[in-house]
Design goal:
metalloprotease, four-stranded antiparallel beta sheet, Zinc metalloprotease, transmembrane helix, Peptidase_M50, 23% strand, 16 strands, alpha+beta, transmembrane, Pdz3 Domain
Length: 455
């Protein structure tokens, strides 16, 4: 069932984003007076088509679903010598360079506009998310060394307001990208009963982060969680053999108070095969129960890591807030979010080219499909957020100056504006071949990374 949901979520998301992208090209082409011959969702052989509209444009679905295209009347692709003058005036290459720029740029801009609409709608509806209240930082982490304490609530990072945990994580990623220039992260917190304090995470700690991983936890910034209360207890697990029951509250471990679910989970994982003594509160009565977590090998870095497990469910969740905005503020936040995400994406690409960020961060259709399925299972808001992020990525990638992409064509037309003449056909052919080779290489790398993650 999960596989079917993943496939449906992936197809719906990708299909929607492709249609929006190509509609951008189509609508601006029509607005500029260019004749559109075909609108295809998918590439390759056409499996279904119908003709509609005054120009009898062919609306088609093609066999390969990873993409789409709008085919216009274009002298470079077909013989137009026998066409009447009325059609020749609507041929693509006969339009001014500014009209051609508008038509090509309309696809990526449509993706950005869709992302703005999705984010604005989500901000107006209200998004439930964990509050930016912190757990006690782990010993030796950058947050602990900087002076953060349990129950500190982050209110701003580098002057940017933080409303919830997603804002916190996003601002940490931005700070990590900027840290290459030696800039640390100035984090302002509200401490209960003590007022506001400002701490600084050094640039050195930020530059070491794996931006594809859990950046906040790596710094010692974790969500404040409730005390560990047990839900289901697996009768085959170490917890059940030790006498743990549903409803038990874990108070201490080896005489050390357990502050929250995260601390308890971390302590159990760090004790495979070693007996630990739990102080438990059951129906108001204190109990002391020894338990020996079973060792289990999990993937970690380059080699498997053995962690402890007692096979119990932990109940409770962090403090949640609903962040809601009016139409104007929601739209403003959405525009800023799309801009910031686009800039960050470009910076990440730049850091990959310079070797500062691993090429393992390049993801392909398998990973995107997995994220689509996961987000759809969480809820509609999560799924729409996923679509907005992918729509931004699609817009940015299409604007890269790579021949065969929209950005490559925009580069050609920019050179035409500067020189007063179009690029030569020979130059265009060579660039096209190089562009196809580069795209095939990137796709192969993305699929390789996807398979490596699965394995």
């Amino acid at each position: 069932m999960n596989l079917l949901q993943t496939l449906v979520a992936f197809v719906v998301a990708l299909g929607t984003l492709i249609v929006i992208h190509e509609l951008g090209h189509y609508l601006v082409a029509r607005w500029c007076g260019v004749k559109v011959l075909r609108f295809s969702v998918g590439m390759g052989r056409i499996v279904w088509s119908r003709r509609f509209g005054p120009d009898q444009t062919e609306w088609a679905i093609s066999a390969l679903p990873l993409g789409g295209y709008v085919k216009m009347l274009d002298a470079r692709d077909q013989d137009v010598a026998s066409l009447p003058e009325a059609d020749l005036r609507r041929e693509f290459t006969r339009q001014s360079v500014w009209k051609r720029i508008a038509i090509v740029a309309a696809g990526p801009l449509a993706n950005f506009l869709l992302a703005i609409l999705l984010y604005a709608g989500l901000y107006m509806h209200g998004i439930e998310e964990p509050a930016s209240r912190l757990a006690q930082p782990a010993q030796g982490t950058a947050a602990q060394l900087a002076g953060f304490k349990r129950d500190d609530t982050v209110v701003a990072i580098n002057g940017n307001a933080v409303a919830g945990w997603s804002d916190l994580r996003w601002q940490v990623i931005r700070a990590a990208v900027d840290a290459k220039d030696g800039q640390g992260a100035r984090i302002e917190v509200q401490r209960p009963g003590r007022g506001r304090f400002t701490f600084t995470l050094p640039a050195e700690a930020l530059t070491k982060l794996d931006l594809d991983g859990d950046v906040t936890t790596a710094l010692g910034l974790s969500i404040a969680l409730p005390p560990p209360v047990l839900g289901k207890v697996d009768p085959r697990g170490a917890g059940a053999r030790a006498g743990l029951r549903t409803g038990d509250t874990i108070v201490a471990m080896d005489g050390v108070p357990v502050q929250d679910i995260g601390a308890f989970t971390g302590a159990v994982r760090a004790a495979p095969g070693r007996e630990i003594v739990l102080d438990v509160l059951r129906d108001g009565r204190p109990l002391r129960l020894p338990v020996t977590p079973e060792g289990d090998n999990v993937k970690g870095g380059k080699a498997p890591v053995t962690v402890g497990k007692i096979k119990v469910e932990l109940l409770g969740r962090p403090d949640m807030i609903v962040v809601t905005d009016g139409p104007v503020r929601a739209t403003t936040k959405a525009v800023r979010k799309v801009w910031d995400t686009s800039v960050l994406t470009v910076r990440m690409i730049g850091r990959m080219l310079t070797g500062d960020v691993s090429w393992k961060n390049v993801t392909g259709p398998i990973t995107i499909a997995d994220y689509a399925g996961q987000s759809s299972r969480i809820g509609l808001a999560s799924y729409l957020t996923f679509m907005a992020v992918v729509s931004i990525s699609l817009g940015v990638m299409n604007l890269l100056p790579i021949p065969v992409l929209d950005g490559g064509h925009l580069l050609y037309y920019s050179l035409e504006v500067l020189t007063g003449r179009p690029v030569s056909e020979r130059f265009g052919e060579i660039a096209q071949r190089l562009g196809v080779g580069l795209l095939v290489t990137l796709m192969a790398l993305a699929v390789f990374n996807d398979v490596a993650r699965l394995m």
